[in-house]
Amino acid sequence: EQAKIEAFASHSRVPVINGLTNEYHPCQILADVFTFIEHRGSIQGKVVAWVGDGNNMANTWLQAADILGFTLHVSTPSGYEIDAKVAGVTNADCVKVFKNPVDACRGAHLVTTDVWTSMGFEAENDARRLAFADWCVDAEMMAAAQPDALWHADVCHGPTLKLDATRTPIRIHGMLDDCSRYGVALEAHDS
């Protein structure tokens, strides 16, 4: 929980980073943003599509959009919406919400998602599998994105993606390899 890590940090004599809480996942999003910049240049003014759960990853993408000046298109199933107040977003223009995930991906420079069932929510897996059935990043969503759009997910398999990894290697391998490398570097730097 974010409150616990903040309390811990306030009493620590050494720097404390948030690697992951229920509310935020900043190391992952920093790695994703660094990877986008390496492959495509500045993310400012670009469109990032978030397809899936309004979870810690979505909250951190909202924060990044607010700070770095890009627009986040979000599509979540009913009952799993984002809450911009949780993310502390000050610029409402940095986020656009779409009911249809294909519409959220339209014109996107980066399409991103996460697992449907985060750690600690395994008891909800069956309900989430039903709720998220139409929120699998697929060829139709990628066709709506920019022709050279990158896509990234924490997982390259399972129900969150319906793409052929062998047909779009830069979209998977470039992002995941680089994100893994950046994630390790970020965590090592701040430890």
Q: Mind explaining what this structure looks like?
A:
The chain is α/β, with parallel strands linked by helices. It is about 40% helix and about 15% strand. It has eight helices and seven strands. It has helices spanning about 1-10, 25-40, 55-70, 85, 100-105, 125-130, 140-145, 170-190; strands spanning about 45-50, 70-75, 95, 110-115, 135-140, 150-155, 160. A five-stranded parallel beta sheet has the order 3-2-1-4-6. It has a two-stranded parallel ribbon with strand order 5-7. β1, α3 (about 55-70) and β2 (about 70-75) form a beta-alpha-beta unit. The longest helix has 21 residues, at about 170-190. It is globular. The two termini are about 20 Å apart.
Summarize the helices and strands and which ones pair or pack.
Blueprint (H helix, E strand, L loop, with lengths): L1 H9 L15 H15 L6 E5 L4 H13 L2 E5 L8 H4 L7 E3 L3 H5 L4 E4 L11 H7 L5 E2 H6 L5 E4 L7 E2 L6 H21 L2
Parallel strand pairs: 1-2, 1-4, 2-3, 4-6, 5-7
Q: Which spans have pLDDT < 50 for at least 5 consecutive residues?
A: 164-191
Helix content: 40-55%
The assigned structural class equals alpha/beta
Q: Strand content of the residues, in percent? A: 5-15%
Q: Averaged pLDDT, please?
A: 78
Global Rg: 16 Å
Reported for the largest beta sheet, the result is: 5 strands, parallel
What is the helix tally? 8
Strand order of the largest sheet: 3-2-1-4-6
Query: What is the N-to-C order of secondary-structure elements (H for helix, E for strand)?
Result: HHEHEHEHEHEHEEH
Assign an overall shape: globular
Number of β-strand runs: 7
Termini separation comes to: 19 Å
